[in-house]
Write a structure and sequence with these properties.
Blueprint lengths: L6 H27 L9 E5 L2 E6 L4 E6 L6 E9 L6 E6 L9 E4 L10 E10 L4 E11 L1
Antiparallel strand pairs: 1-2, 2-3, 3-6, 4-5, 4-7, 7-8
Length: about 140
């Protein structure tokens, strides 16, 4: 019976494994070092009484109450998640003589780029006769 000496092969395999681990660790470290800043986000949020939208490329934030079935209003409050001044945007539908939406621009005079904002919404429908909270979403400018 003939036996082979595998000790040399094991040593080479171990060296190759260590080299691969070192390269992997270097790739992970370089990816973390080159991480991009927070990515801006668009928003399209639809519910029974209207829609709220944000287009990051134009910094345009819009609120729209649907033009149907009587009096409707949609209100959105925008607040920087780190604290700061809130802004509320409300739109009333055609029942109030206002068709179309209400928009503002979230430019750098309100918040700097890459700021995280909380958007809280509520809506009103005349037949219901009450305001209903619609929750909140987060966007990044």
């Amino acid at each position: 019976m003939r036996y082979q000496d595998l000790s040399g092969r094991k040593e080479i395999m171990m060296k190759n494994l260590l080299k691969a681990a070192a390269v992997g660790a270097a790739l992970i470290a370089s990816s973390a070092a080159m991480a991009q800043p927070a990515m801006a986000s668009d928003l399209s949020w639809t519910f029974s009484d209207g829609v709220i939208s944000y287009n990051d490329s134009t910094n345009k934030f819009c609120v729209r109450a649907y033009d149907s079935e009587g009096a409707r209003q949609v209100s959105a409050t925008i607040t920087p998640t780190g604290g700061g001044r809130s802004v509320t945007v409300t739109d009333k539908n055609d029942f109030y003589g206002h068709s179309g939406g209400t928009c503002i621009y979230l430019n750098s005079s309100y918040v700097p780029e890459n700021t995280s904002l909380s958007v809280s919404a509520k809506s009103y429908w005349g037949e219901r006769g009450t305001w209903v909270g619609r929750g909140s979403r987060t966007i990044t400018t």
